[in-house]
Amino acid sequence: MPERQADSNFKPAIGDANSTSPRVSASPRPRFSPSPALPVSPSLFSRWRNAFFGTLLVLAGLAAALVSVLARQTNDSRLTTAGALLSLIFAGLILVFIVPPLARSARLEMAGLDLPIEVTTGGAIFIAIVSIVGLAAWNTGNNLLFLVFALLCSTLFVGWVAARTSLRDLVVSARFPDHIFAGEPAPVIVTLRNTKRFMPSFSVLVEARGPTSSRGGRKRRLKLKQHHKRVLAYFTYVPHGAAAEQRVEQLFPERGYVFINGFELTTRFPFGFVRRRRRLKTRNVDIVVYPKPEPIG
Predict the structure, then answer these.
(1) pTM of the model
(2) How many C-beta atoms lie closer than 10 Å to residue 116's C-beta?
(3) Each residue's pLDDT tens digit, 190-211
(4) Is 171 exposed, middle or buried (0-12, 13-18, 19+ CB in 10 A)?
(5) Which CATH architecture has domain 8-35+170-290?
(6) Residue 236: which of 246, 227, 226 has the closest Cα?
(7) Cβ partners under 8 Å of residue 53, min gap 6
(8) Alpha-carbon distance 113 to 101, whole Å?
(9) What is the pLDDT of residues 269-282, one digit of tens each?
(10) Domain segments of the chain: what residues?
(11) Residue 202: beta bridge partners?
């Protein structure tokens, strides 16, 4: 009886005759919490300064390497050693001061593109190992290294196919309560249905996705991805032709409207080398978050 009473507070499901502001659902058949604060962009002077010093370090390293090569041709061992040491020093400075900002910028640009796949840290290490083994096999011509290289490449291929299969033919629905108050946990029922005939789905993270309002200018709105996501539930295993359901609690810190226009499914299955995403669209739904009730007197 208590469970039935709790479920009666939820809005009716989509497709019901008495549906008013229903359950949010999406299917392939046609990390809300506020988005994290954007990093403050450096000033124009700082960017020009970093670019100048980076270019200077690269040119100095190239000059030292050129001096070392020329000294070696003239059989000047001291100048060759000095040039090689300077090249190593400049390479270390570039590795410490130039590479990390470039890596951060590249990561932000890749995140802005919002690609359906994202390479994890373990995946980057694995790809580096595959590249090293491939170069070693190419240089040495060793058949054993070629065999290991083929095995590593087949591992990447199997991971790609397994992740894609795990996210296929999934139907998501989320049922929110009628009344949601700011700062109070709201129970949400999330259902993930696997409509595949034979293959199950593993390690699926379900996130709700919706647009966010922006007060910036038109250029800022065009440049940034005006979407935010809220983690709803994580399903470790969903059998084929079956559905899994979770009752989770979501916290909305502020009052107002929360817009939902789709879901995003994410998985790292099977090896965790890549994070694969798939988006499911749904009709636009507005969730009203009421002010937090305060005691009177």
Answers:
(1) 0.62
(2) 14
(3) 999 999 988 999 999 999 888 8
(4) middle
(5) Sandwich (2.60)
(6) 246
(7) 97
(8) 18
(9) 989 998 999 988 88
(10) 8-35+170-290, 44-164
(11) 237
Helix (H/G/I), strand (E/B), else coil: 169: coil
Cα–Cα distance, 290 to 252 (Å, whole number)? 10
| pLDDT given at position 210 | 83
Compute CA distances 286 → 67, 217, 242, whole Å. Answer: 67, 24, 29
| 209 bridge partner residues | 229, 262
- Of the candidates 249, 246, 258, which has an alpha carbon nearest to the alpha carbon of residue 284? 258
Question: pLDDT digit string (tens) for 126-165?
Answer: 998 999 998 888 888 889 989 999 999 999 999 999 999 9
**Element holding 121 (H helix, E strand):** helix 121-140
Give DSSP secondary structure letters for 59-110.
HHHHHHHHHHHHHHHTT-HHHHHHHHHHHHHHHHHIIIIIHHHHHHHHHHHH
Tokens of 6: 């709790």
Q: Average pLDDT of the chain?
A: 77
